[in-house]
Amino acid sequence: MNRKLLTVITEQALERQLIRCVMEAGARGYTITEARGQGQRGLRSADFETGCNIRLEVICEETVARQISTRLHRDYFQDFAMVLYLEDVEVLRPEKFDASGHQ
Amino acid sequence: MQLDPVILFFVLGFGAGLLRAEMRLPSAVYELLTVILLLSIGLKGGVELAEADLLQILPRLGTVLIMGIVLGLLAFGLLRLSRALPRSDAAAIAAHYGSVSVGTYAVAVAFLDTVGVAYEAYSAAFVVVLEVPAILLGIILVRGLRPQNGWSDVLHEVFLGKGVVLLLGGLFIGLLVGRQGISDLEPLFIDAFKGFLALFLLEMGLVAASQSGAIRRHGTFLLLFALGFPLLGAVVGAVFAWLMAMSLGGALLMAVLGASASYIAAPAAMRLSVPEANPGLSLTASLAITFPFNVLVGVPLYYAVLSAVYPGAGG
After folding, report:
1. Of A46, A48, B1, B107, which sits with the fewest C-beta atoms within 10 Å of its C-beta?
2. Which CATH number fits domain B25-309: 3.30.1360.10, 1.20.1530.20, 3.40.50.1100, 3.40.50.1980?
3. Tens digits of per-residue pLDDT, A25-40?
4. Beta-strand relationship, A53-60 and A31-35
5. Which of A34, A48, A78, A80 should we substitute to test contact with B (largest number of B Cβ atoms within 10 Å)?
6. Of A11, A16, A50, which is closest to B153 when you measure between CB atoms?
């Protein structure tokens, strides 16, 4: 069964806002890891707290994923370093990732 | 004058960083060092508060709050007058310079211990008070009373950042248990203070060196501001110390608080609430220019000037 995997790589400063956005959209959970790398907005070395990046992953239904990405696009793309992408993923227990309101 | 070994650790870190040496403290270690330094300064201040007349000190917190606003407005005014930066960048930098750096304060404390000059350790409470007003001022200067993502996250960032929480926590613990009570903790928090500070400065040297490439990118104006404003801030701090009839040691701490710029609380808060401001500008200024300047030149310089001119310094 297919679900969407939404991955967001962005500044650590946004962690709390991101979590709120994801949960409000109806996702059941998320995973956050620290990230390093380089992009359009410069090198993110992750060794000093303000320069640190995070990588947030959410597996959810497509509608939820679209809702999250629309909101993040609207609120943060202009001023923050943010990379966001969606993938189709095959999961073993699809109902585990479905929006809480749908059951 | 005797070279302070603590400062040499900063020089070591900075030099190693410039040469791209393979050296880095793990970030968890850096976190721990900050926690220990904040608690040490808080505890020491709390112990002194326990012995002081609180009614005499409380009004001083209000005076220091005003100092934070004065510093922020001064920085903002100067930056706007120069017309070199847009309003949002000027406000973000003003928030950094009106707020304070605990690391610089710790260096000044170590300096006073080395030269054997007494100081008001309860000034740690001033550090807490100074962290806040300039950040709020910076936000209001750009956003009015409605910041980008609402007040709740910003206030959370400002009042529940580790600086405020740990300093306040240390102050309260020290105040509650007094000098006798913390004697068991002294080996870690008081005696080993300089050792932790040395390690902290080693890492700060590495960080400052890694940011120093950005100085060229941001041009001479930022460099001049980041070197010039600390001098002005030091004068403001010293004047406020004089208004509060503090000792020479206390005046140095206040001068250093006035001269220093935040690199922990302010960047996080400004990033959230004034996201269009370039975070590279303010962080480069405070971390790569002002912090090294204060540590290497500022602290001894302010002390030399104060011991010559500060009333009651006996110079």
Report:
1. B1
2. 1.20.1530.20
3. 999 999 999 888 877 7
4. antiparallel
5. A48
6. A16
Q: Judge whether B207 is closer than 8 Å to chain A, CB to CB.
A: yes
3-state helix, strand, coil in chain A (%, to 5): 35, 35, 25
What is the amino acid identity at position A35? A
Residues within 8 A of B (CB atoms), A 24-83 only: 42, 45-50, 75-76, 78-80
Binary contact (B276, A42; C-beta < 8 A): no
Q: Calculate the alpha carbon distances from A52 to A9, B30, B64, B154 in Å.
A: 11, 14, 32, 18
User: Pick from B24, B153, B267: which is nearest to A17 by CB?
Assistant: B153
Mean pLDDT of B268-280: 86
Average pLDDT over residues A6-34: 93
Contacts of B147 in chain A (CB under 8 A): none
Please indicate whether, in this complex, the C-beta atoms of A14 and B272 are within 8 angstroms of each other: yes
Note whether B67 and B255 are within 8 A (CB). no
For the stretch B15-55, pLDDT in tens is 999 998 888 888 889 889 999 999 999 999 999 999 888 88
Which of B149, B155, B156, B281 best probes binding to A when mutated, by most A CB atoms within 10 angstroms?
Answer: B149
CB < 8 Å from A in window 209-228 of B:
210
Give the model confidence (pLDDT) of A44-68 as tens digits. 554 454 567 899 999 999 999 999 9
Instruction: Say how far apart CA A54 and CA A36 lie, in whole Å.
Output: 8
What is the set of domains in chain A, with CATH numbers? 2-88 (3.30.70.120)
**Which residues of chain B make contact with A46, given a CB cutoff of 8 A?**
27
Q: Cα angle at B85 between B83 and B87, to 5 degrees? A: 95
**Tokens in use for A66?**
């679209």
Helix runs in B83-212, H state only: 87-98, 102-115, 124-131, 133-143, 151-159, 162-181, 186, 193-211
